[in-house]
């Protein structure tokens, strides 16, 4: 069934988009991530312009992270204090990101920037996660205990604050910085940033695993809601019809994904996620390096009359 | 050279007689509406060549060239080049106020209808249509085989937005004709001008114009205008929709 998208200005197959939403939702529920890094490339692949894809995916991630955050809230797995400090940075980062997005779009280098950030970010995070998962898996094979976590330089920074529910005592500086970075790349790349935020919070900030996913979902939710608003006000590129189809598919898929995720062990899950992120990154890298089938592209600067 | 001269003389001679034929045309639909299930459409243009007393008796074989132009827009064509091992956009050309949709139809090959000189002046064929570029501080069209111009036409053609078909116009009788105007799904919204040019014995003898419009209606129109004019409200609505969907999902799937 074809449906005409009013902002993207092209007809798409509803079932195809629903299926894409559900598939990405499944993965996101399974790993506890937003899944924007999969959704945006898929939308670009079916012919939606990168700008509209990035702007519309933001609201889709907001929907799936809201349903996730609600269930984590009921389980008291969200640290409100930590979330608020992260949000201060997140909102600033998102504002900067949407501004940079508009500038790059005017320069004609937005597509390149999106592709480059995907390559750098996904290959780095993917390979780190993959190797870490592999090490953890070997450790459990050998029956050794995981290494004790020691404090690092981050814990020597001033402006310390006590985060009760996470049971940590930490400087607010790194937390705000992390929020800014995630908000910025999220707005530019059309991703929630959960897949970067969760490892950073675990390894750098030493946030316990009990509150990490729920808290990161709150940040994702707010930055994505904010990004949707900013994209709607400044670039007029949010396609609500497209977003709604993605949301419905996404939240449904996420529920089944979450159930599947509970059956897999933590290290294996990280290994799989690392592999997935790495392969998306490599796919983008290949696209940049090999000669494109067409060297020319056209962009319309707005129809008049 | 002599052929060109001859053609010009012929045009001058026939210029006075140009009003001898009248073209009467109509499109099957003057208002194409984009609805949720819109995925392209084909319009039909039909018409007839009306002869009157002043029409030379020996002039019976007519040729027609139909040009359909969509709403005009500025477009940028960019060329990728390999820099530091990756392919990035480097050079670009700006096309000023070029048609977003362009179709040229005729009843036989353009070069059989008229001379290259007249074809160029009357903009017959994609190679002859005026596509103004900004080259430095100048505004001009360039030679047809310019890399950016031909890439531009090629890419628009691939998307079905530019087309030329020298056999699309069919004469049902010597004076009655019709042609289909295919519109792809991703067709630009706006007013479309149709120009019908009449040729006889290689000479341009008259033209007429008509138009149709493609409009979004109902829901599509509402969404598009709200997004453009009430960005804040639109954003709030999208945000509310996202929260509703997320909340409903957590309710629906809560028990299991």
UniProtKB/TrEMBL annotation, chain A:
Keywords: Cell membrane, Membrane, Transmembrane, Transmembrane helix. Its main location: membrane. It is found in: Cell membrane; Membrane. It holds the Pfam family TauE. The keyword Transmembrane applies. The chain crosses the membrane at residues 12-38, 44-69, 81-101, 113-131, 168-198, 210-230, 237-257, 269-290. The keyword Transmembrane applies. InterPro entries: TM_pro_TauE-like, TSUP/Inactive_protease-like. It is a multi-pass membrane protein. Belongs to the 4-toluene sulfonate uptake permease (TSUP) (TC 2.A.102) family. This is Probable membrane transporter protein. It comes from Bradyrhizobium diversitatis.
UniProtKB/TrEMBL annotation, chain B:
This is TIGR02186 family protein. It holds the Pfam family Alph_Pro_TM. Keywords: Membrane, Transmembrane, Transmembrane helix. InterPro entries: CHP02186-rel_TM. The chain crosses the membrane at residues 232-253.
